[in-house]
Design goal:
This protein has 120 residues and is mainly alpha-helical. Helices cover 63% and strands 3% of the residues. The protein has five helices and two strands; from the N terminus they run H-H-E-E-H-H-H. A hairpin with a 5-residue loop joins strand 1 and strand 2. 15% of the residues are buried.
């Protein structure tokens, strides 16, 4: 299938699909005319990429763990791929840290707003 077909099948625009290729997340076959040719398994791959991005995982980490995922629509955490689990745990810890920092910022802003409202 061509890039437009993959875009239609996944709901991801062509520009993003090209970006995924640049990041090493997709590896379409190049035809003699330069067109990209994708397989059916690439549909599941794009869905995995989107799910991991939505979870806050960077494309660098996705590139390291994508080979661990089966070419199905479900997102399993394969036991035979410890790097997958380790990388996702590390990403989760970083997200938890950012959430904590944001909550601290939110409390500080709440205090400033409370003081501003009381002072007006």
């Amino acid at each position: 299938m061509r890039i437009g077909d993959l875009a239609h099948a996944t709901g991801v625009n062509r520009r993003l699909l090209r970006y995924y290729e640049e990041q090493g997340l997709l590896g379409p076959v190049r035809l003699s005319n330069g067109y990209r040719e994708y397989g059916e398994a690439d549909i599941a791959t794009v869905r995995h990429i989107r799910a991991l991005l939505a979870a806050g995982v960077s494309t660098a980490v996705i590139a390291r763990v994508l080979h661990c995922l089966r070419k199905e629509d479900v997102l399993p955490a394969p036991a035979r791929c410890p790097a997958f689990i380790e990388d996702l745990r590390r990403e989760r810890a970083q997200i938890a840290e950012r959430i904590s920092e944001l909550q601290t910022s939110q409390r500080a802003l709440d205090s400033i707003l409370d003081a501003a409202v009381r002072g007006s």
